[in-house]
Amino acid sequence: MRYFSLVLVAIAGLLAGGVGLTFTMASAESGNRATFQELGLLGDILNRVRADYVSETEGPDLVEAAIQGMLHSLDPHSSYLPPESFRDMQVQSSGEYGGLGIEVTTEQGVVKVVSPIDDTPAKAAGIMPGDYITGVNGESILGGTLDEAIEKMRGPAGAPISLTIAREGADEPLEFEIVRAVITVRSVTWRVEDDNLGYIRVATFNENTGELLEKAFDGLQEQLGDTMRGIVLDLRNDPGGLLDQAIAVSDAFLDGGEVVSTRGRDPQDIERYNARRGTRIGDLPVVVLINGGSASASEIVAGALQDRKRATLIGTTSFGKGSVQTVIPLNGGRNGALRLTTARYYTPAGRSIQATGIEPDIDIAAVRSEKPVKRISEADLPNALRNELENQKKAEEEANEVAKEGDDAEPEVASSEMPPEDYPKDKDYQLERAKEILGQIALSGKLLADAG
């Protein structure tokens, strides 16, 4: 029974948040009897599997699988990070790591692409948001864990890898041959559009994003000076990242006030994050581009600028990842880490992002489609947290419907603006519309100033 006892101690330690606790029979009898009974059941099953399963199994692998199963049953983003995965996560947050450059999640046991990162092998190869990765190097990864899939896709720079992709609309699986590279994610890029507009692309939120954004502003100011009449902030297919960097990006556009708040299980557990006084770009008009690949930190920025009336949002509804994950090192990181969902994000107006996303002010599709395009969102993921404001929203909608009864006016039908039929496929329609809207805002502002 030595192995059984070790399993109990190991799992109990994890449940205690990684703090080294010694459970005695007295403490178990006083407060932990039910927990130990449940752990006893788990230990009994582990021993039975090791003794009687058709193939020989490894005890540590079984324990890790049990832990992962427990955490994955909570929501799509809670998980256990083994030591190597924990180190990889820390390296990735720094903005440089080895691999393909792809943000993934899981849906019903299948690895799904949230977004390829700009200027990476995955992006260059043609991997698209919504693709399902079903195989790596000819080996199926269906039914495996997300961490296992990521580990298979990581590797030394220069090493080739084959991905099998299932794509909506494709009759057969697609095969992609890709060469791994050292992924140095330049999270912010910029350029001048139409001689007097600034374009800033934020591809992800890593440790360098805030600093690179400042350099982008410096570059635009040096090149355009007082002739700059607006900024396009492109957050499309930005999978998110670090909360402090989302606050730093929002801070550059806002003159003080709230950016985002987080609320945990305890109703009193609320944290608010505010922008500093002063703004990096004065009162220049801003248009933000979002789509279904804009998630997490990018939704925080978009929601803050929308609620604070600082920008016009155009594009399509964002992904809807509105939950906060806290990474808790276990035994100082030597035993890996626990990534646990501990709170939800709320915009300054008190809107929950979770499973609903940020709706743009102007819904503009990227490409023309004669049939509705299914949006892949957080709500589609297994065990996704529900938006706790959903019932309240439904009640308000029902009340509005009742109020409309007897009204002869035709109901308003929401639909995406699509490119003209002859619009060139190689042109970015959403960006072109963003520039048009900025021009209209700048012109109306000038006319108001002249009138004054």
Describe the protein.
The protein is α+β, with helices and mostly antiparallel strands. It folds into 3 domains: 2-57; 96-184, Pdz3 Domain, CATH 2.30.42; 188-322 and 342-403 and 410-451, 2-enoyl-CoA Hydratase, Chain A, domain 1 (Alpha-Beta Complex). The chain has helices spanning 2-15, 25-52, 59-72, 83-93, 121-125, 146-153, 209-224, 243-253, 297-307, 390-404, 429-451, and strands spanning 79-81, 96-99, 102-107, 110-116, 132-136, 139-140, 160-166, 174-179, 181-184, 188-193, 197-202, 231-234, 257-263, 270-275, 286-290, 312-315, 323-329, 337-346, 362-363. Strands 3, 4, 5, 6, 7 and 8 form a 6-stranded antiparallel sheet that branches. Strands 10-11-12-15-16-19 form a 6-stranded mixed sheet, sandwiched between helices. Strands 1, 13, 14, 17 and 18 form a 5-stranded antiparallel sheet that branches. The longest helix is centred in the N-terminal third of the chain and has 28 residues, at 25-52. The chain is globular and about 75 Å long.
Topology:
Blueprint: H1 2-15, H2 25-52, H3 59-72, E1 79-81, H4 83-93, E2 96-99, E3 102-107, E4 110-116, H5 121-125, E5 132-136, E6 139-140, H6 146-153, E7 160-166, E8 174-179, E9 181-184, E10 188-193, E11 197-202, H7 209-224, E12 231-234, H8 243-253, E13 257-263, E14 270-275, E15 286-290, H9 297-307, E16 312-315, E17 323-329, E18 337-346, E19 362-363, H10 390-404, H11 429-451
Parallel strand pairs: 11-12, 12-15, 15-16, 16-19
Antiparallel strand pairs: 1-18, 2-9, 3-4, 4-5, 5-6, 5-7, 7-8, 10-11, 13-14, 13-18, 17-18
Helix pairs in contact: 1-2, 7-8, 8-9
